């Protein structure tokens, strides 16, 4: 394992990830150099937490500045008003920009700043002499984070109130916000409380969707929005309660993210959508084969209920086993993504619901090609036993059971579901190094059978590349397995790797000369090769014909005098 993973040392990791220099770790009374230009920091009082300000943040400090002989030349403390500036923007001497970004909130430090990071050889007459080393006693009172979230200066976000946790909403999520938009002269343009919208659909102006994806629940920000993220060179006319926005106007928008509902695509084709109405507990979710219990309401698009389970007093919860076709496919898949106690609204397209047929349900008929909605509360679930919870005997038994289930599904023409069963069977016994010799033999036989059967499924599903890989796995275990050679040849033919297909068929016939299926496939291969050769001959024939035509006397007259005609063998 050491050779496989070869973990890098700490120094290598710093180089790879370009970790920021957060300054030296100091104890109270200790002094160390920051960087390599002579800037020194002595810690006078520890700050709070771990966060430090970033370039672009608005910081607030108290300070006292002195020369090395103790002569004071400036102090915010004397006037009682803290000094505010934007960090890293050159608004203060370089030593301040570099030193203050190493401080935590409430920290007090003494910085000794060389001339190169202060006022240089000229000084700042009359208070600071030429080439003066300065000392600043600085206390970092607070800072406001400011981010250029559009990366082009178009939307600047200033955090007014920190949010909770770490999650941010995404494009499909439905958010609830409070917002207020003003022109630069403070004229109120729009103001709304508890506005709900889907991020990808947007609201008011493009900047709001862009900003809300960077926010946490409860966070409040001030956005400075340039015209390209507002209403551009056309502006916006007054409408209802909203005022007009003149062309090419910068807006100031106060935005608060109250909450959001997570919306996700359960299937890759976006035909099963899940909206979380209430978050569940912990991190565990049901697995395939789990027994789930839930409350369930099924509705048509017009709101008519066709199913209601587990809601009446004393009524049992609706129970089913996942991945067993006991419910519609969309519900089956969605439940696998839920946590205990989660309440979700599912929108399921016909392909994952009742299809093109009419379906009589408990309370109503579901018409053909209906998109349906389910409100689901996952009350509890019992997971199917995972391989790591099994001993060797149990793993082999479970693999055998999944293989039989796969066989039954294959015979029923349910190839995708059969494939999943074979894959799960192999997972149970994939890592067999701790097995006894007898158990290893059993595991090998099961791996061979399941991978071969899975390859047959993949051929039916036209997933020829995967079929080829599965057959190759079998041949690694049994190099003279005729079925594996035969099915891999079938895959190669469909992938147009005819030479490789011929090698597999010839080897299969050497091992079993009388195998009828292999002989038939050999015949198919010969026909394919004949067809391929005809196409190739026609292609080259057309190409040579065009070349010959281009070399005719009439065509040569039209060519550049310096160009030499191409000589083509007429016999070709």
Automatic annotation (TrEMBL):
Cross-referenced SMART domains: TPR (SM00028)
InterPro entries named in the record: FKBP4/5/8-like (IPR050754), PPIase_dom_sf (IPR046357), PPIase_FKBP_dom (IPR001179), TPR-like_helical_dom_sf (IPR011990), TPR_rpt (IPR019734)
Assigned protein family: Belongs to the FKBP-type PPIase family.
Enzyme class: isomerase
TPR repeats (start-end): 482-515
Species annotation: Malus domestica
Protein name: peptidylprolyl isomerase
Catalytic activity: [protein]-peptidylproline (omega=180) = [protein]-peptidylproline (omega=0)
Acidic residues composition bias: residue spans: 12-21
Enzyme Commission number, as recorded: 5.2.1.8
Domain (PPIase FKBP-type) ranges: 56-144, 172-261, 289-382
GO MF, one annotated term: peptidyl-prolyl cis-trans isomerase activity
GO terms (BP aspect): cellular heat acclimation
Keywords: Calmodulin-binding, Isomerase, Repeat, Rotamase, TPR repeat
Region spans: Disordered: 1-23, 548-572
């Amino acid at each position: 394992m050491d050779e496989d993973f070869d973990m890098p040392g700490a120094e290598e990791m710093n180089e790879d990830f370009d970790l920021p220099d957060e300054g030296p770790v100091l104890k109270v009374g200790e002094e160390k150099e920051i960087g390599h230009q002579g800037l020194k920091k002595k810690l006078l009082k520890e700050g709070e937490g771990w966060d430090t300000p970033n370039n672009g943040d608005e910081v607030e400090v108290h300070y006292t500045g002195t020369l090395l002989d103790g002569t004071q030349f400036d102090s915010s403390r004397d006037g009682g008003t803290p000094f505010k500036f934007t960090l890293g923007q050159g608004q203060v001497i370089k030593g301040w920009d570099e030193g203050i970004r190493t401080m935590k909130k409430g920290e007090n430090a003494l910085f000794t700043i060389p001339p190169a990071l202060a006022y240089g050889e000229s000084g700042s007459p009359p208070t600071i002499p030429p080439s003066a080393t300065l000392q600043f006693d600085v206390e970092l009172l607070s800072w406001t984070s400011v981010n250029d979230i559009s990366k082009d200066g178009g939307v600047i976000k200033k955090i007014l109130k920190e949010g909770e946790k770490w999650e941010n909403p995404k494009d499909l999520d439905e958010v609830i916000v409070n917002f207020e938009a003003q022109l630069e002269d403070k004229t109120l343009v729009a103001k709304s409380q508890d506005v709900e919208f889907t991020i990808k659909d947007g609201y008011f102006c493009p900047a709001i969707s862009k900003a809300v994806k960077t926010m946490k629940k409860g966070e409040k920000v001030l956005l400075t929005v340039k015209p390209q993220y507002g209403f551009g060179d056309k502006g916006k006319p007054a409408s209802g309660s909203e005022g007009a926005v003149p062309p090419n106007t910068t807006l100031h928008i106060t935005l608060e993210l109250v909450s959001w509902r997570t919306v996700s695509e359960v299937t890759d084709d976006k035909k099963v959508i899940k909206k979380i109405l209430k978050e569940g507990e912990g991190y565990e979710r049901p697995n395939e084969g789990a027994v789930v219990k839930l409350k369930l309401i099924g509705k048509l698009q017009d709101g008519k209920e066709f199913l209601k389970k587990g809601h009446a007093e004393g009524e049992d919860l609706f129970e089913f086993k996942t991945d067993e076709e006991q419910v519609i496919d969309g519900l089956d898949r969605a439940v696998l993504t839920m946590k205990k106690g989660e309440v979700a609204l599912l929108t399921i397209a016909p392909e994952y619901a009742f299809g093109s047929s009419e379906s009589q349900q408990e309370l109503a008929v579901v018409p053909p090609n209906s998109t349906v909605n389910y409100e689901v509360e996952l009350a509890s679930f019992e997971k199917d036993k995972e391989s790591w919870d099994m001993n060797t005997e149990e793993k082999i038994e479970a693999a055998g059971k999944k293989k039989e289930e796969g066989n039954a599904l294959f015979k029923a023409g349910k190839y995708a579901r059969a494939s999943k069963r074979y894959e799960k069977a192999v997972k149970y016994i994939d890592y067999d190094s701790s097995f006894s010799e007898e158990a290893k033999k059993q595991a090998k036989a099961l791996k061979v059978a399941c991978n071969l059967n899975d390859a047959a499924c993949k051929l039916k599903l036209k997933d020829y590349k995967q079929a080829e890989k599965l057959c190759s796995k079998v041949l690694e275990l049994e190099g003279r397995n005729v079925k594996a050679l035969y099915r891999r040849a079938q895959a190669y033919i469909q992938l147009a790797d005819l030479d490789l297909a011929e090698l597999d068929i010839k080897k299969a016939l050497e091992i079993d000369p009388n195998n009828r299926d292999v002989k038939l496939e050999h015949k198919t291969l010969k026909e394919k090769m004949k067809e391929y050769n005809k196409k190739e001959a026609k292609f080259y024939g057309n190409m040579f014909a065009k070349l010959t035509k281009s070399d005719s006397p009439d065509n040569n007259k039209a060519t550049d005098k310096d160009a030499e005609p191409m000589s083509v063998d007429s016999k070709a």
